[in-house]
Amino acid sequence: MIMTLIILGAYVAGIALGALAPGLGAQTADATEPALMLLVFLVGIGTALDPSAWARLRSAGPRAIALPVAVILGTLGGAALVAPLLPGMSLPDVLAVASGFGWYSLSAVMIAEARGEVMGALALMANISREVITLVFAGLMVRAFGPLAPVASAGATAMDVSLGIITIHGGREAGLVALASGFAVSLATPVFVGFFLSL
């Protein structure tokens, strides 16, 4: 939750700085793509340096495959249903935003680079909202839909920021599934965002 507040604070500070110094945007625009490449590179290093990452994925059994697939299909299906209600946004752009799966730091940068700052800001807020909703309503989700509900809601954040609250409300087994599901969804995020941005 602290990291979410830091990200939100950085975003608001960026808006304030951009409003006070409009010429700054032109100077920082060239840094966006290298920053994105560095982020993806560091994620790759982190994955390679985590020897238990693939073991966690295998240990959760069939649910480790079924749940992230359901998360991806459910997210994209829901986004496709609401796309006609969002004037001015194409279906691929709506699906690109949804494909952040809660990983706002990566998806917002990718989308801002390809579609501009407004779309990047939308991706940031949409995916932060997914994380915050999970953190606030995880207990209610477990009572209403079962221990894996907040795992699905968390998307990519199930393996890190949302893991604690998922384990508290859903139990240790849900926490194990959350690690595996979040890892798989995180791997899928740059692939799906990049694909929909290319359409």
- Helix and strand succession? HHHHHHHHHHH
Termini, distance in Å? 34 Å
Instruction: Give the structural class.
Output: mainly alpha
Radius of gyration: 17 Å
Gross morphology = globular
Strand content: under 5%
Mean pLDDT across residues: 85
The poorly predicted ranges are none
Please report the number of helical segments: 11
* Major beta sheet summary: none
β-strand number: 0
**What helical percentage do the residues reach?**
over 70%
> What is the total domain count?
1
Give an account of the 3D structure.
The structure is a single chain. Helix content is 79%, strand content 0%. With 199 residues, it is mainly alpha-helical. The chain has one domain. The radius of gyration is 17 Å and the shape is globular. It holds the Pfam family Lys_export. Keywords: Membrane, Transmembrane, Transmembrane helix. It comes from Tistrella mobilis.
